[in-house]
Amino acid sequence: MTAKNTSPQRSAAVCLCHVWFGLLLAFGFVCHGAERDRQWTIYLAQDKHLDYNWCGSTTEIELRMAALLAYFLDAAERNEACWNLDGTLWDEVYRRHRGHAGSVRLHDTIRKGRIGYAGNYSTLLWGILDTETAIRTCYGAIPIEKSTGVLARTTLVMENPGMTWGIANILTDCGFDFLGRGIYRLRAESYHHHRDPYPLFWWKASNGKQILVRWDLYQDTKSWGGYAEAHCLAAMAGEKWNAFELQSFGDRNTEEVFRKRKQFIEQTIERYRAYGENYPISSILLLGTGWDNWTQTEDFSAFVRKFNADSDGTVRIVDGRYEDFFVAAEREIRQKNLTIPILEGSFGICWEEWAGHLAGPTADFREAERLLRLAEVSQALETMAGHGDNKSRTLLRHGFAELLKFAEHDFGGTDRQRAALSAGARSSAVTQAMDIGRSLAPKLAVSPSPNAGDFTPEEMTFEWRGGRVVFDPQECGVVSVTSAQGRAWVPHGQSPSLGEFKHTLYRSRAKPDSVLPEPLLAPNELVVHKLAGQRTGRGVQITADFDRSGFRVESTWFFHAANPWIDITYRLKDGWSDDPQTVEFSFPFAIEKPTYRYDAPGAILRAGPKQTGGDDLPGANPQLFAGVTFAAASGGGRTALLITPDSLLLRFGQNTSAIPTKITSMPMMNLTGNDWQFGQGGWNEWTFRYRIVLLDEKFDPVRAVQEAQQFATPPFLQAPGQSPAISGLEALDINFSGGPLLALKVAEDNQRLILRFWNVLNRTVEGSLKHPPRWPEAEICDALERSVKPLDAKDGTIRFSAEPLEILTIALAKDR
Fold first, then answer.
1. What value does the mean pLDDT take over residues 542-554?
2. Domains identified in the chain, total number
């Protein structure tokens, strides 16, 4: 995703490959004499980095995709080039534009090994997905694998510098062995350089499984470590950035160009040689030849042939697939018993902050995820009873596909016009998903609203669950909460108050030396229009309407009598502009020495660096995090949970001595200046809901899941010890104490039913479910529904075991 003139790195006219020597000196590695004798193989994986909905309308982009792929299919069928799909979206688009015959042709070429593919849908913002949707991003590999017989072993997580630890859980549970990475360091300049110098490593998931990762240190977008590192070869032939149209070139290997390209290969080998023991294998992967361009050319393949013809045998280039490199690397590691670094932890988030650039559609996206899941269960239960509806099944699959289109990684565009196109395409996608979800999901029970006569007036200081609450009418936030035992939950009299709305303007957009730029001292006066307190048998409600920073704000606070819950709903109107800014809600707590946690796709993580007890590896974002359903602060035997159904971005800490603990929700921002998505897609009304849960107990991941399940539309189908989210699911009599049921769906083969459980505990948990009539066979599958082993069923009960932190998939098959 490169806009011309939007970054000094991206607008450079020439490749920066010549700076390799300085990097080697910085490493300071000593190369042994034996290293000089190593025979090297360079795997040049030709591809085009796909920016869907960024550099044109959906129609324009898909027409370019189809034409570009058709060109390389022709070349592949002549055995004159190899090419790679950087996601399964290419297969979907080619089938849509070239029909069944085109799909058969593509799959035949994949079968013959001339076209490679990554098993993920596209380049996505993984951190904004819930766990089940993140798994679905890899479902596009299922029909390719079934048609071609070529196993999906490789994935790419590209461009976005962030990658949370749970992705390792998801990819390994999907059966992937390999992960390719290359990034653009936009918005990560201030911290990403701290990454450990491991270009090849085993990423060990919290479930104990490992995936082999190739991720060179970042030199430049169009050089080593960038998502377009091999575009150096094109730049040497004079190719410029052009993301808007197809362009064709013949063989550009003039004597001068060939010399430069050969020199780049030599420099690449020296770079990897300099890693020393951190890179003990003799294979190197170069990808990203196409960059953001739509370039039809076979001159890279011609370069490979000419280079190999001239080589003395010490260096060979393979015009190959992503997977060819990984298979060779894995084989060499095994045969030579090589030691490869093992990393355990999170690389954090980065571009997930774009969710705050389109806060309204993002909130709808999150709601659509939940509704589609509920609708899917209802359809699966009908199928279980013998009344499956193919039309509904097709609709649901379309809805999930639209979710993935929304989550594609570039929320903006190359200019303001294309940013508007992008916002429109995403709004269209989420509208389709929401429409399908709402029409097919069963109606959930709604608590009856009390009658007006049930209310009695209440003061701003009031008794609550044996303790006391003080609501500040000047700041419209809670300044004191004490428990029945007299312990303070909120730092008394400190600013910000609990739940306080805050709007911040900044002097500029993102700067390379910090995650957040310097704030402006702007007027932040609050003008109250309405303030009322009322008490019912269910609890105390406070309504506060006010103006602040140009926003018209309606807020409702409800303090539950039966549970330690404080529900807050904010409705904002107007106030937003193109100026650099954020909207935040502050949640300070009087918890000493807190540990912060949040749930990301595939894992519940501890915020903070590894060396201080967190899960973040060197080079992770130290400021921003993304929580799928909750954030938590715990310490001293107490836990404060924040349930966040509408927003993702979080900050932890930034404390003072008077405020030892603070969770900040940042649902709205526009600080990423590269992509022109400043105006919230034209929205001027937003709703954000929060639930605070105050617990006199240590953090318990199962309890966090249980609490998240009870607020707004349930994010899970069933949580331990609670009733199912929808009627009919109780017939399965599910007994699993380790975590939630994520999915119950009709399998992609339309012959089985799939159940997916998530064990959030760090121990093995046994579970069981009732054997449904007419579905007598049960088996363990991987997350892509491949059979692994049968499950025994005795006395009408299926018993299973989930390993620590495992995502467990079970398939039920009906009578044959």
1. 98
2. 3
Asked if residue 169 and residue 47 are part of one domain, the reply reads yes
Pairing of the two strands 342-343 and 200-204: parallel
Q: pLDDT value at position 452?
A: 63
What are phi and psi for residue 694, nearest 5 degrees? Answer: -105, 115
One domain, residues 55 and 194: yes
Query: What is the reported pLDDT for 795?
Result: 87
State the residue range of the domain holding 766.
729-813
**CATH code for position 748:** 2.60.40.2220
Within a domain: residue 448? no
714 prior amide bond cis, ω within 30: no
Q: State the burial class of residue 308 (Cβ atoms within 10 Å of its Cβ: 0-12, 13-18, 19+).
A: middle
Domain shared by 356 and 312, yes or no: no
Q: Is residue 668 part of a domain?
A: no
Asked if residue 549 lies in contact with residue 535, where contact means CB atoms within 8 angstroms, the answer is no
Q: Tell whether the model's pLDDT for residue 237 goes beyond 80.
A: yes
| Strand intervals (E) in 491-525 | 500-505
Q: Is the domain of 328 the same as that of 358?
A: no
- Average pLDDT (456-460) is 96
407: number of CA atoms within 13 Å, CB side? 28
222 and 252 inside one domain: yes
Query: What secondary structure, in 3-state letters, does 287-340 show?
Result: ECCCCCCEEEECHHHHHHHHHHHHCCCCEEEEECCHHHHHHHHHHHHHHHCCCC
Q: Which residues have a Cβ under 8 Å from the Cβ of 377 and sit 6 or more positions away? A: 717, 725, 726, 729, 743, 744, 745
- Considering the domain boundaries, does residue 639 fall inside one? no
Check if the beta carbon of residue 757 is closer than 8 Å to that of residue 736. yes
Give residue-wise pLDDT tens across range 422-448: 999 999 999 999 999 999 999 987 777
3-state secondary structure of 628: coil
* Structure letter (DSSP) for residue 805: T
Euclidean distance between CA atoms 130 and 555, whole angstroms: 27
pLDDT at 36: 56
Percentage of residues of the chain with pLDDT beyond 90: 90
1, pLDDT greater than 50: no
Model confidence band, residue 15 (pLDDT cutoffs 50, 70, 90): very low
Angle between helices 89-111 and 58-77 (to 10 degrees): 10
Q: Phi and psi (nearest 5°) for 268?
A: -60, -45
Distance CA 772, CA 754 (A): 13
pLDDT digits (tens, 9 = 90+) for 106-122: 999 999 999 999 999 99
Give the integer Cα–Cα distance in Å for 394 and 97.
Answer: 19
* CB-based contact 218:225 (threshold 8 Å): yes
Query: 393 and 272 share a domain?
Result: no
The Cα–Cα gap between 479 and 589 comes to 10
The strand order across the sheet containing 200-204 reads 154-156, 178-180, 210-214, 200-204, 342-343
Among the listed residues 814, 702, 797, 813, the one whose alpha carbon sits nearest the alpha carbon of residue 757: 702
Residue 560, burial from CB neighbour count under 10 angstroms (0-12, 13-18, 19+):
middle
Cα angle: 797, vertex 799, 804; to 5 degrees: 155
Contact 582, 356 (CB under 8 A): yes
Packing angle, helices 255-274 and 299-310, rounded to 10:
70
Mean pLDDT of the chain: 94
- Say which residues have a Cβ less than 8 Å from residue 536's Cβ, sequence separation at least 6: 450, 454, 455, 456
Core vs surface per residue 427-449: b (16+ CB within 10 A) or e:
bbbbebbbebbeebbeeeeeeee
Residue 172 pLDDT exceeds 60: yes
Of 383, 415, 440, the position where a domain reaches its end is 440
Residues 334 and 356 in one domain: no
Which of 632, 685, 140 lies closest to 359 in space, CA to CA? 685
Q: Is 124:365 a contact under the CB 8 Å cutoff?
A: no
What's the pTM value of the predicted model, to 2 decimals? 0.95
689 belongs to a structural domain:
no
Say if residue 274 is in the same domain as residue 330: yes
Domain-ending residue, one of 344, 363, 378: 344
